[in-house]
């Protein structure tokens, strides 16, 4: 996988993934965990993170294992939102450095609308920085 370490003890998301701290998990398997965002920006706002510590999207490469992981993260997010907010429009993506708030890869899964509406500004694509839609990241890391 992309990460060099399995977990980082000081990483809050590693602590959540290893159940070191109590968080309401919406999904858990051997590759990812999902939970509600602590500061939701939309009607539903979930995060899907890998169990393995991978700092950012910049650490992903055109490798089958990275592509498979991001695809799985997206599938988990889609399934959660289809179940919890079937009537809403959904949006999925990642912050890119330097705009990521936690240095542990995490997929934002939104059931729109953004609440309040201005929160959409934080999730706008800004080229090689800012927010990248999940499908664009998958195209970028798809193995040749």
Characterization of this structure:
β2 (32-36) and β3 (42-50) form a beta hairpin. With 144 residues, the chain is an alpha+beta fold. Strands 1-2-3-5-4-7-6 form a seven-stranded antiparallel sheet. It is built from three helices and seven strands. The protein has helices at residues 12-17, 64-84, 134-141; strands spanning 27-28, 32-36, 42-50, 90-96, 107-114, 125-126, 129-133. α2 (64-84) runs antiparallel to α3.
Summary keywords:
7 strands, single chain, seven-stranded antiparallel sheet, 144 residues, 24% helix, alpha+beta
Task: Please state the average pLDDT score.
Answer: 93
Query: Class by helix and strand content?
Result: alpha+beta
Strand content: 25-35%
Q: What is the string of helix and strand elements?
A: HEEEHEEEEH
Low-confidence stretches: none
Distance between the termini: 17 Å
Main beta sheet: 7 strands, antiparallel
Gyration radius, rounded? 14 Å
Summarize the structure.
With 144 residues, the chain is of the alpha+beta class.
Topology:
Elements: H1 12-17, E1 27-28, E2 32-36, E3 42-50, H2 64-84, E4 90-96, E5 107-114, E6 125-126, E7 129-133, H3 134-141
Antiparallel strand pairs: 1-2, 2-3, 3-5, 4-5, 4-7, 6-7
Helix pairs in contact: 2-3
